[in-house]
TrEMBL record, chain A:
It comes from Spirilliplanes yamanashiensis. It is found in: Cell membrane; Membrane. Its main location: membrane. Pfam families: Oxidored_q2. One of its GO terms (cellular component) is plasma membrane. NDH-1 is composed of 14 different subunits. Subunits NuoA, H, J, K, L, M, N constitute the membrane sector of the complex. The chain crosses the membrane at residues 6-26, 38-56, 68-89. It catalyses: a quinone + NADH + 5 H(+)(in) = a quinol + NAD(+) + 4 H(+)(out). This is NADH-quinone oxidoreductase subunit K. Belongs to the complex I subunit 4L family. Its EC number is 7.1.1.-.
TrEMBL record, chain B:
It is a multi-pass membrane protein. Keywords: Cell membrane, Membrane, NAD, Quinone, Transmembrane, Transmembrane helix. The keyword Cell membrane applies. Belongs to the complex I subunit 6 family. This is NADH-quinone oxidoreductase subunit J. The chain crosses the membrane at residues 6-29, 36-54, 60-81, 101-118, 138-165. It catalyses: a quinone + NADH + 5 H(+)(in) = a quinol + NAD(+) + 4 H(+)(out). Coiled coil: none annotated. It comes from Spirilliplanes yamanashiensis. Its EC number is 7.1.1.-. It is found in: Cell membrane.
From TrEMBL, chain C:
The keyword Transmembrane applies. One of its GO terms (molecular function) is NADH dehydrogenase activity. The lineage of its organism: Bacteria, Bacillati, Actinomycetota, Actinomycetes, Micromonosporales. InterPro entries: NADH_UbQ_OxRdtase_su1/FPO (IPR001694). It comes from the Bacteria. Belongs to the complex I subunit 1 family. This is NADH-quinone oxidoreductase subunit H. One of its GO terms (biological process) is aerobic respiration. The gene is nuoH_3. The chain crosses the membrane at residues 12-30, 69-91, 111-130, 142-161, 173-200, 221-243, 255-275, 287-311. PANTHER family: NADH DEHYDROGENASE SUBUNIT 1, NADH-UBIQUINONE OXIDOREDUCTASE CHAIN 1. One of its GO terms (cellular component) is plasma membrane. It is a multi-pass membrane protein. Its main location: membrane.
Length: 105, 193, 313
């Protein structure tokens, strides 16, 4: 970027995504909306990984690998989230985290 | 740290970065579930755009591809499970909003503090000619173990997800003694059996 | 960077070229399609233009409480995505936008169509339109993986995801010779993602036109245009990926590519219009039980051929 703060600016944007996603994941009552919050957090991770690759060590593939891992985690989170939502809805017709409070150990 | 992003690239990154966060906020503000889903997709596409500017073409288009399909499926689930999917009346479905906001803002503050106080390492090396090739060679070479483990993890996810989501097992399909010649499925499927 | 895209100052004309080529392909597809359906005179090639102009002048009607923002976004996105997918198709030896992952780009534009078509179905707040949108998603689950595998087969053989490299790799032998399964799968999935012919269930008459049932005027024009451009872009892409693109004797490259594209379109229309519309719930099982294993085997065969040094370069 113009100067030497490109990495910091992009990481700040990523931190913004993480913060917003965390707010959503903690505050939403619907399981699907909680998943959307988690996706936003991972979106921030993805952006941070890409920025770190570009601004720190573009000659190494590790930053890209981290981004790939973020994508994989998103896919797993999404698939398992949908499966759990379907399972719990089938069992007791709820899709709210509050109604599943008794699952806590 | 001198980098080679041109003027328009800096502008694009700035606009896309603001877009991604704004769309992320919109996810939890809009009433319509369809709009929330596609606001999240817009946030992903903005991040994909930033990756595109950073020369990570493969990661950018894979992000766009995966997230679009995910969000299209997500939309189906949102409409299926949420009340008021079209947002025709205002609603809030939140708990502990104040605590969550404090947590979100707190984490953001800590991260930003760290980001701007850490002495970041000097950039080493240059952007490779073909970032896609760099990633591909890493996956098939030095970082193969990562992809092997990931593949097993994804396979386990497929199995676990199917087991969790389906209510029907083989006893439903082939009878209590598993002697049915043809599976008894609610939807017959396309292949002759 | 071995960049085959035109230099900075030629970007404007290149964009225009892609738009013109896209419109021409759309006209070709729509005309051939109408010719096959009516079995009729050459007037069928005038008909798409005529109905296009009529839609341009038609007044837009709307529904009760539509989600206008998402509806418009969906309608505009369909043709834009179609043109963006055409941007990585080599025209005259170069692409408008050359990336190191052209094939994935093409695939991603097609994936974005999932969202766009669903939005067109969701927007008008109408039952039949939304049903069509859901049908398209169900169909998408069927065709997506076979499409990905057939694209990656080409990438494996060429050792590159760049379309210009892929065309260059076919200088000696067209890829269709060693990967017929991938070619057929690609053309079938192309018909599926343009939801045309046997895969037209999302716009089926049994749900009153489905996704497009509430579209009128410019929206309908954009939507139909996008579908036709997508099908034309897929035919041009198929000609480039499997039939050697612009390679051929005597004639210049672009003419060969055009002739091959026309041949693919004609074959697609001639076969596709003879098959009845398939139900999406039926296509999913066929895709996963037949097409996915077939394309995986095809990729395996190509990989073995590649290791044994069959492909040059």
């Amino acid at each position: 970027m113009s100067g030497d703060v490109g990495l910091q600016i992009l990481l700040t944007v990523a931190a913004g995504l993480v913060g917003v996603g965390l707010f959503g994941a903690l505050s939403q009552q619907s399981i699907v909306m909680v998943m959307m919050g988690l996706e936003l957090v991972l979106n921030g991770v993805l952006l941070a990984a890409g920025a770190a690759w570009y601004f720190i060590a573009p000659d190494l593939p590790d930053g890209q690998m981290l981004a790939v891992m973020a994508l994989v985690v998103m896919a797993v989170e999404m698939a398992m989230g949908f499966a759990v939502t379907v399972a719990i809805y089938r069992a007791r017709q709820v899709d709210m985290v509050d109604a599943a409070r008794d699952l806590r150990g | 740290m001198v980098t080679d992003l041109s003027g328009w690239a800096v502008t694009a990154v700035a606009v896309l970065g603001v877009c991604s966060v704004a769309c992320g906020i919109a996810v939890f503000v809009v009433d319509s579930m369809a709009r929330a889903t596609f606001a999240l997709l817009a946030s992903f596409l903005a991040v994909a755009g930033v990756l595109l500017v950073l020369d990570l073409v493969y990661l950018a288009v894979v992000t766009a591809l995966m997230m679009t399909i995910e969000m299209a499926i997500m939309a189906v689930f949102m409409i299926m499970f949420m009340m008021n999917p079209a947002g025709l009346m205002p609603m809030t479905m939140v708990h502990n909003a104040r605590g969550s906001a404090v947590a979100g803002a707190g984490v953001f503050g800590v991260l930003v503090g760290g980001i701007w106080t850490i002495d970041w390492p000097v950039r080493r090396g240059a952007v490779p000619v073909d970032a896609t090739r760099q990633l591909g060679e890493a996956i098939m070479g030095s970082h193969m173990l990562v992809m092997l483990v990931t593949g097993v993890g994804l396979f386990a996810t497929i199995l676990a997800g199917t087991v969790l989501a389906t209510a029907r097992g083989r006893y439903d399909r082939f009878g209590a003694d598993l002697t049915g010649a043809k599976p008894d499925d609610p939807i017959p499927g396309g292949l002759p059996r | 960077m071995p960049d085959m895209s035109p230099p900075e100052e030629a970007q404007g004309p290149a964009v225009l070229l892609v738009v013109v080529v896209g419109l021409a392909l759309a006209w070709l597809v729509a005309g051939a399609d109408r010719f096959a359906v009516t079995g009729g005179p050459l007037r069928s090639f005038v008909e798409p233009v005529r109905s296009g102009v009529r839609l341009l002048l038609e007044q837009r009607r709307t529904t009760l409480a539509p989600d206008r923002l998402l509806w418009r976004v969906g309608c505009v996105a369909v043709p834009v995505l179609a043109l963006l997918s055409l941007a990585v198709v080599p025209i005259g030896g170069q692409t408008l936008w050359s990336t190191s992952a052209d094939l994935v780009w093409f695939n991603a534009m097609e994936a974005l169509l999932w969202a766009a078509v669903w939005l067109v179905g969701w927007g008008p707040n109408a039952f039949h339109a939304l049903t069509g949108g859901y049908r398209f998603l169900a169909q998408g689950l069927a065709y997506e993986l076979p499409l990905m595998f057939s694209l990656i087969t080409v990438g494996v053989a060429a050792g590159s995801l760049r379309t210009t490299d892929i065309v260059a790799a076919q200088a000696d032998l067209w890829f269709v010779v060693t990967m017929p399964v991938a070619f057929v799968t690609f053309m079938v999935t192309a018909a599926a993602f343009a939801f045309w012919g046997p895969f037209a269930a999302p716009v089926g008459p049994d749900i009153a036109g489905g996704v497009r049932s509430e579209l009128s005027g410019v929206d309908r024009l954009l939507f139909e245009l996008g579908r036709a451009v997508f099908l034309g872009a897929a035919a041009a892409m198929g000609a480039a990926l499997f039939l050697g693109g612009g390679s051929g004797p005597w004639l210049p490259g672009p003419v060969w590519h055009l002739l091959k594209t026309i041949a693919v379109v004609v074959a697609l229309v001639a076969v596709g219009r003879r098959v009845p519309v398939l139900r999406p719930d039926r296509t999913v099982e066929v895709a996963w039980m037949v097409l996915v294993p077939a394309t995986v085997l095809q990729t395996l065969v190509v990989a073995v051929l590649l290791i044994s040094g069959f492909y040059p370069g």
